[in-house]
Structures are given as C-alpha cells and as structure tokens.
Design brief:
By secondary structure, the chain is an alpha/beta fold. The protein has one domain: STAS domain (Transcription Regulator spoIIAA, 2-Layer Sandwich). The protein has four helices and five strands; from the N terminus they run E-E-H-E-H-E-H-E-H. A five-stranded mixed β-sheet has the order 1-2-3-4-5, sandwiched between helices. Helix 1 runs parallel beside helix 2 and helix 2 packs across helix 3.
C-alpha cells in the first residue's frame, strides 16, 4: 500500500514521556490498521518510548473478527507498551472495549477513554 493509497491520515508526535498518534479516517480495515501499527512500532523503536496515546478519529469500526485480528497484530508489533486509545465516538465503544479486554486478557496494558485528559492521567503523563 503506497502512501497515496493509505485510507487514513496519521500524525505521530514525540511528546514528553510518550508518543502521541492521531489517526483520522472515515473507516479503516484490518489491513490498513496493520500498516498504521507498523508505523507506530517503527517510531516507538526510534524514540525508545513505552507509552502511546492514540487518538482514534474514525467514526466506524470493523467487525468483531477484524477487531480481534487488529488486537493480535498490536500485541505482536507493540509488545510491552501502555496504550491509551481515545475514542470520541460512542458508537465505537462496545467494539473498542472488546479490543481492550481482549488485549488485557493477554497481559497487554491497553485502555479506552472518551477524552485525552483521562487517557493522560492513566498513562501517568498528566
């Protein structure tokens, strides 16, 4: 997938004590999210960070099977990190909670929040 074919916009910033990532798209499938996760993993290795705040400005979610696939991929690409996902869309809450609980059941430190302030507090960077 070339950059011009990427169905999302991703901004990654190194901030004091964590990596801030903002993804914006109308929708994102498991393949595109795997590409996004690879970009995050590369940046985490470059800056040796162990905390990510991912602001997910995507109003839709893939199905349960794709969400499970994304979580599995996240566990492989971003092991040992604290990941706070900010979700401003109430309609995504159920599947993102499923994703977080699936990750947590495998020992991964991931939580979903409705606002950045709560996410930063959980990450210990507020």
């Amino acid at each position: 997938m070339t950059e011009s074919e990427t169905p999302y916009a991703l901004t990654i910033e190194r901030r004091d004590g964590y990596l801030y990532a903002r993804v914006t798209a109308l929708q994102i499938d498991a393949e595109a999210f795997a590409t996004l996760l690879g970009d995050l993993a590369d940046e985490c290795r470059r800056c040796d960070c162990d905390k990510i705040l991912l602001y997910r400005k995507v109003p839709s979610m893939p199905g349960v099977a794709s969400t499970f696939e994304i979580v599995t991929r996240m566990l492989q690409l971003l092991p040992g990190l604290m990941v706070a996902i900010v979700n401003p869309y109430r309609s995504n809450s159920e599947l993102l909670t499923f994703a977080a609980e699936t990750a947590q059941s495998r020992g991964y430190d991931m939580r979903v929040f409705n606002d950045e302030r709560a996410a930063k507090k959980w990450l210990g960077i507020a």
